[in-house]
Amino acid sequence: MRRHFFSLTIGALTLLCAMAGQAQEPVQPPKLEFAFEVRAQVADPLVVGELPNGTRRIIDILGGTVEGSGISGKILPGGADWQLIRREDGFTDIDARYTIETDSGSLIYVSNIGGDPSAKDGNGYISTVSPEGDILEEQWATGMNAPKGLALDGGTLYVSDIDELVAIDTETGEITGRYPAEGAQFLNDVAAANGVVYVTDSGTGRIHRLEGDSFTVWVDDPRIQSPNGIYVVDGEIVVAAADSSAAEPGQERYLWTISPDGTELEPLGGTTPLGGLDAVEPDGQGGFFLSDWGGAIVMHFTPGDSARTLVEVSQGTADFDYVAESGMLYLPVMVAGRLIAYEATWGSESNGMQ
Fold first, then answer.
1. Can you spell out the DSSP letters for 203-267?
2. Which phi and psi angles does 315 have, rounded to 5°?
3. What is the pLDDT of residue 109?
4. Which of 35, 136, 211, 257 could pair with 341 as two cysteines, CB 3.0-4.6 Å apart?
């Protein structure tokens, strides 16, 4: 049975597939070809009330379809979009949570914030859906506040939750561990490899590490600011972060490498900001796929070369997953409420979008 791990959060969506990519000889940057699109049927907005930072409203998700060459299925009724229209700038933060029943028989896990993404309200949980489309357990794993980034290592699903890391047994849905993060403000992305787990904190600029039962501050270096996307590549840790000169760290990130012992930090391919980087995914060919949430683009970056735009969508291109084995890239577009998949094709021609 193939399992897809879907995490829908405010301003970020992590899609983790339990597959292993195969390394290939370096070639030219890939093309992205349209694979599928999610179209949701929604109800009229219901204004809940005013909050200190804006207007809260809820839009029920009534159903919908998932269609394309890479996947097909339907959206099950019962989800909703918890929106916050920010008072300071008029932009809308979207927290869309829904369950997809795929025709291919994939088991889907959905993380649910259940409220304010920074509130310790106990409303967060993860749901499971069977290959036949039955909701096995709406609250398959409970006891969380606002689960966000996910990483799978062996039979454990690691979830960032505001200021702690939660470990869940994927066979039972039982929480097997809670690891408070010292001084954390907004734990974001998660990466795991060989039993070691790394978690970025976009609020404090720190990176935490879980090894064994010890969850400690691993990197606290003033050279990096607002770290977000993180991945373990060939023993080194690659993270999207700004440097100390950035006026707007969240919009001026580029890639850094960190040595396994956390003592050596080096820019990867230069210090020119690449944008408001969110996702960092290796392409299996020596380069990286990157997303820029505010810039509304997906890029391909090879160290030593410039970043190339593969596709421009709309604002909200958040954390995605690239599966090297199938060449599929699953991209959420949060502001538009869309989930799109592209197939990356490799060849001698320059990258593009077909």
1. TT--EEEEETTEEEEEE--TTEES---EEEETTEEEEEEEETT-SSGGGSBEEEEE-TTS--EEE
2. -55, 135
3. 63
4. 35
Domain ranges of the chain: 1-20+27-149
**Closest listed residue to residue 319, CA positions, set 293, 340, 300:** 293
- Identify each DSSP E strand in 103-206 by its residue range: 107-112, 124-129, 135-144, 150-153, 156-161, 164-169, 175-180, 187-193, 196-201
Strands 230-233 and 236-243: antiparallel
Instruction: Return the amino acid letter for 213.
Output: D
Q: What does the buried/exposed string (b/e) look like for 251-288 if buried means 16 or more CB atoms within 10 Å of the residue's CB?
A: bbbbbbbbeeebeebebbbeeebbbbbbbbbbbbbebb
Compute the average pLDDT of residues 318-326: 77
C-alpha span between 153 and 150 (Å, rounded): 10
Tally of CA atoms within 13 A in the half-sphere of 80 that contains its CB: 15
Please check the confidence at residue 143 and state whether its pLDDT lies above 60.
yes
- What fold, for 1-20+27-149? Porin (2.40.160)
DSSP code for 173: -
pLDDT digits over 270-305, tens only?
A: 999 999 999 899 998 889 999 998 899 999 999 888
DSSP per-residue letters across 182-201: TT-S-EEEEEEETTEEEEEE
Per-residue pLDDT band for 90 (boundaries 50, 70, 90) equals confident
The token duo for 195 is 């039993």
Mean pLDDT, the chain, rounded, equals: 81
pLDDT surpassing 90 at residue 8:
no
> Is pLDDT of 7 > 90?
no
Please provide residue 250's backbone torsions phi and psi, each rounded to the nearest 5 degrees: -70, -15
Residue 57 near residue 45, CB atoms below 8 Å: yes
How far apart are alpha carbons 8 and 294 in whole angstroms? 18
